[in-house]
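Example S7 (structure tokens).
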């Protein structure tokens, strides 16, 4: 009887050691962090250069700051969504200008039609945050599919009169996800 108790006790000790070992030696979660400044009109990676390369399943933390004088977005989109938004931005701005709109009115109507805040998440739109000048935030994202993605801003404060969005002026950066 005491032999059986001894065996049971030893078994428990081994089990506890295995569990403790699992927690002590379990690899660190796969996390990558980037600090990105949103300026007029470009994305600045504080510790390096775009493109960013990450891995499928990795947790990516973006620490964002709007250091510009206009509202800016930090959107992550597929190449198809990028092209669609670039085309739509020009199309809508031209239509609104033809209607005789300008200034705040032009910008407001444009944002209703195109601004990322009017876009649905999902199909081609992986992440969307919008920051006022001086605002900062932190977002987390991970990717299920390898491929090339784009970080972009489709706002048009300061560029609407010229018929283009911030993305057209250079607010686009590449993000490569490896399998
Ligand atoms: Cu912008």
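Recovered sequence:
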């Amino acid at each position: 009887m005491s032999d059986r108790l001894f065996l049971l006790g030893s078994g428990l000790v081994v089990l506890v050691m295995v569990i403790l070992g699992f927690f002590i030696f379990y690899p660190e979660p796969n996390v990558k962090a980037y600090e990105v400044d949103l300026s007029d009109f470009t994305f600045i990676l504080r510790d390096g250069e775009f493109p960013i390369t990450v891995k499928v399943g990795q947790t990516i933390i973006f620490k964002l700051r709007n250091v510009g004088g206009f509202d800016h977005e930090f959107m992550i989109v597929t190449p198809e969504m990028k092209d669609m938004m670039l085309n739509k931005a020009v199309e809508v701005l031209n239509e609104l200008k033809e209607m005789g709109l300008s200034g705040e009115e032009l910008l407001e109507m444009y944002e209703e039609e195109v601004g990322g805040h009017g876009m649905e998440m999902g199909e081609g739109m992986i992440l969307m945050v919008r920051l006022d000048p001086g605002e900062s935030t932190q977002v987390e994202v991970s990717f299920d599919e390898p491929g090339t993605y784009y970080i972009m801003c489709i706002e048009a404060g300061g560029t609407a009169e010229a018929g283009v969005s911030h993305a057209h002026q250079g607010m686009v950066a590449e993000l490569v996800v490896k399998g």
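Notes on this example. The pocket of copper (II) ion is lined by residues 41, 72-73, 153, 155, 166, 171 (CB under 6 Å).
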